[in-house]
Design brief:
heterodimer, A: 499 residues, mainly alpha, two-stranded antiparallel ribbon, 5 strands, disordered C terminus, B: 349 residues, alpha/beta, Helicase, Ruva Protein, domain 3, Rossmann fold, 15 helices, 11 strands, 48% helix, globular
């Protein structure tokens, strides 16, 4: 093969390689830029390094495709040279008859070689290189834009996973899930098992929920506090229910705002009218007997519960939402529905019992109702609060599920931040003190909302450990230990603090 | 005939240098010089018509016959006579007339009395027995007489009374015809037309050329060209030209070009399907390649190029393609249709 021809061949190979590399670069920049841009706008949920890998992969693919498509044979090069330099098929003929001998053949070869000598290999141009440069520039520009849009740590964190309100870790969630499975496969009595599983699953669901409605929570808490206070301050049954009904406006308004259901707004208007009517009835007729008052209230309460039920049915709130479930339970309670030693009474139940109830009984039941209602609403509305005091919530649920009392904290409770506990002590579990200070750890140090400091939780663990060791049922004990281990991340089998 | 058969036909004709024997390199290199010498000598007697002269030389070296068509007085006969002188070949002129008989062309057996008075039959050769034959106004002869030319043009031999008489090589027939007068003429049959390698149109000279002609002929009407090449040298040049290599691509291009003139073929060109009644024969492909090799050598090249094929396609194909009524209706000439077919063939190259 003639040296001059080989020079041209080398030149064309260089062109091929250069174009392929440029195409690969352009594809790399473009694809990396596009995927990074999608990541910036939250349309892609993956690490930015994956975007770089996508770009690199696209670049390699583009390089390979173009490199293969630009491959050429000696014949194709000969055709190209003949056309480019108007050699009238000299090079092609030389190539085809390269292996043959003869005077004319040799003369032809010599003629072709002499013709090629008149041209420099650099005259074989790259061709449309501007297109490749433009592609690289556009790709680089796209990448630069996408890099510029990467949010800083202090600024927009839209790409980050929303910070979980709960301090519970993935490992803890996994362990809780495993606990649920263990309970399901255990030999516990089915009724007990179902209830434990249901509550654990509900707890897990709540622990995973991330919705911040601090203000809403405060208002609900405040309303419930007001209701409880009013109930405590009431002296007769009329005042009792008036407080309930009148405060109902606030609750329903809050709930309506939360649910964004227009029915709730109407419901609050009806409640206002009911309140007015009730007052009017009381004021207008001093001779109205208690019995008549009770009947009247009963009817109004029945209407209310029906209306609540109806509103729930026609609201846009999904039936799986905890609040919906809680309120439905409130107004459509089964007579024999029990939760581990607690009997939940809805309005209907109260209404039924009204003629026979005494003031004291009613007061107690309402307080109980609120006590049960409160965490249900909290579970749907205040994960943020739970984040602050996950132990509080957890221990409340634990108390509700397993009858485990809350540990005694070292610090005083933050009475300003939590509603005053008006629950009669005989209604609480042993040792429970909702208003006391709490430290609820997920690590060695725990955060105490009362003192706004972190304190060692070893003391708390010791108290819990004592409680658990007093449990007779080994299976239950194992479940409790597992549960504590999940939540508090430090409890080992020996009861020592885990490092 | 399909492309494969056509390709085989073309390939079988010329031999490659490896099997052609030893060719003197000096002779190869002097090829162009000799051709140039012929051109210069012819230019002494024939003004202009350079392209015609080149094509005639190509046909002679390639071993083909030429049909010259032109109006009277453009120098057709003069060209052939001068050519005869330059080639130093025995030259013969046959004036074709309607009463010309075949035996007037080929020769005939005559009865002669020998010295002893015995009557013997002796073949008296006709004017066809020359190296260079000018068949003037060939279309004026009857088809019977025209057919007498068929054997000699193709096989270079004459058969009279079942006896064949070989004609000395190199042998060429240069025929002329007048496109104006159609009365009393007999259009050449397709078979005979196919025997001509080229059909050249001798156009009316340009103003400058005409001025030169008048100037020249005012001085003398005599033809002053001298012999510069012999018949043997022409045969050597022919052998040399046959060794010129042709690439597969150029060969297939030639085959495709000829095939595209046939409207009945499925893959034929659109122009052929629209304007052509009958396409060119395989001799067209053979003639194209043979002539292209000579042309390449004349241009100082040692390989056949697409340009050679495109340039020679007109003289090779114009008398072999028969146009249909659509072409006549659109006032398209055969060269126009050949140009279209060339363009279509180039597209798929």
């Amino acid at each position: 093969m003639d040296g001059r021809f080989l020079k041209f061949k080398s030149r064309l190979s260089k062109i091929r390689l250069t174009k392929s590399v440029m195409a690969g670069l352009a594809a790399d920049f473009a694809f990396a830029g596009i995927s990074l841009l999608l990541w910036d706008f939250g349309l892609l949920k993956m690490s930015p390094w994956i975007c770089a890998c996508i770009g690199f992969g696209a670049g390699c693919l583009a390089f390979a495709v173009l490199f293969l498509s630009l491959r050429f044979s000696d014949e194709e090069l000969a055709i190209r040279l003949d056309e480019r330099f108007a050699l009238k098929e000299r090079v092609q003929t030389m190539l085809e008859y390269g292996g043959e001998k003869g005077s004319v053949i040799e003369l032809q070869r010599e003629d072709a070689v002499n013709s090629l000598r008149g041209f420099d290999s650099k005259q074989l141009k790259f061709g449309r290189m501007w297109l490749y440069f433009l592609a690289i520039v556009l790709g680089a520009a796209l990448l630069a834009v996408s890099l510029a849009l990467i949010p800083s740590d202090e600024g927009d964190n839209s790409n980050d996973e929303p910070e979980l309100a709960f301090a519970i870790s993935e490992k803890q969630i996994a362990q809780l899930t495993e606990l649920i499975e263990n309970v399901k496969s255990s030999d516990m009595e089915s009724v007990y098992k179902e209830s434990v599983v249901s509550n654990l699953e509900e707890l897990l669901s709540d622990l995973k929920t991330v919705e911040l409605h601090r203000e809403m929570v405060e208002r609900v808490k405040s309303s419930i506090f007001d209701i409880e206070k009013t109930i405590d301050d009431s002296e007769c049954i009329e005042e009792l229910y008036e407080a309930l009904i009148s405060n109902q406006d606030d609750i329903t308004n809050i709930v309506a705002e939360y649910l964004k259901a227009e029915e709730w707004a109407d419901f609050s208007n009806i409640s206002a009218r009911l309140s007015a009517a009730l007052k009017y009835s009381a004021e207008a007729d001093e001779d109205v007997s208690s019995e008549t008052m009770r009947d009247s209230t009963k009817k109004k309460l029945e209407n209310t519960s029906a209306y609540v039920s109806l509103s729930l049915a026609f609201s846009d709130v999904p039936e799986t939402e905890a609040l919906y479930v809680a309120l439905s339970r409130l107004v459509n309670v089964e007579e024999d529905n029990e939760i581990i030693g607690e009997t939940v009474y809805g309005f209907a139940k109260i209404a039924e019992k009204l003629p026979d109830n005494t003031y004291d009984w009613s007061k107690t039941k309402i307080q109980t109702l609120l006590t049960v209602m409160e965490p249900e609403i909290y579970s749907a509305m205040e994960p943020e609060l739970v984040n602050i005091s996950v132990g509080d919530y957890a221990t409340d649920r634990l108390y509700g599920i397993f009858g485990i009392t809350k540990p005694q904290g070292d610090d005083d409770s933050d009475k300003d931040k939590q509603p005053e506990d008006t629950k009669p002590d005989d209604e609480r579990g042993d040792g429970a003190s909702a208003g006391d200070g709490h430290t609820y750890p997920t690590n060695d140090k725990v955060y105490d909302i009362g003192s706004d400091e972190t304190v060692p939780y070893g003391n708390l663990w010791a108290l819990y450990n004592d409680k658990i060791n007093n449990v007779d049922d080994e299976e239950k004990k194992a479940i409790y230990q597992k549960y504590f281990q999940i939540l508090f991340n430090g409890f080992d089998e020996k009861g020592d603090v885990e490092e | 005939m399909n492309k494969t058969t056509l390709k085989k036909t073309v390939n079988s004709a010329p031999a490659k240098a490896t099997s052609a024997g030893v060719i003197d390199l000096v002779k190869v290199k002097s090829f162009s010089k000799k051709i140039n010498d012929v051109r210069m000598e012819l230019a002494k007697d024939v003004v202009g018509q350079n392209e015609i002269i080149d094509n005639v030389i190509i046909a002679i070296v390639a071993g083909g016959n030429v049909l010259l068509e032109g109006v009277p007085g453009v120098g057709k006969t003069r060209l052939v006579r001068s050519l005869g002188k330059v080639l130093s070949l025995p030259f013969s002129r046959i004036q074709f007339t309607p009463d010309l008989m075949p035996s007037d062309v080929t020769g005939t057996n005559v009865i002669e009395k020998d010295e002893k008075g015995k009557l013997n039959t002796k073949f008296r050769p006709g004017p066809i027995f020359a190296n260079l034959v000018l068949a003037d106004e060939i279309n004026r002869a009857t088809p019977k007489t025209q057919s007498a030319m068929l054997e000699v043009m193709q096989e270079h031999k004459v058969t009279v009374a079942n006896k064949s008489y070989k004609i000395q090589e190199p042998f060429f027939v240069l025929a002329t015809e007048n496109p104006i007068e159609q009365d009393g003429t007999y259009p050449l049959p397709e078979a005979q037309m196919d025997r001509f390698m080229f059909k050249l149109i001798v156009n009316f000279p340009t103003a400058n050329e005409l001025a030169d002609i008048v100037r020249m002929t005012q001085k003398t009407m005599a033809e002053t060209a001298k012999a510069v090449i012999s018949g043997a040298e022409i045969l050597e040049m022919r052998k040399l030209a046959s060794a010129v290599p042709v690439t597969k691509e150029v060969l297939m291009y030639t085959v495709n070009l000829v095939s595209n003139t046939h409207p009945e073929l499925k893959d034929s060109s659109d122009s052929a399907k629209k304007y052509v009644k009958y396409g060119a024969s395989p001799r067209a492909a053979q003639g194209l390649i043979t002539a292209a090799k000579v042309r390449a050598l004349m241009q100082g090249r040692y390989n056949v190029s697409y340009e050679d094929i495109d340039t020679l396609a007109y003289p090779v194909l114009r008398h072999r393609i028969k146009l249909n009524f659509t072409a006549a209706n659109e006032k398209l000439g055969v060269d126009d249709v050949i140009e279209m077919i060339i363009k279509e063939t180039k597209k798929v190259r």
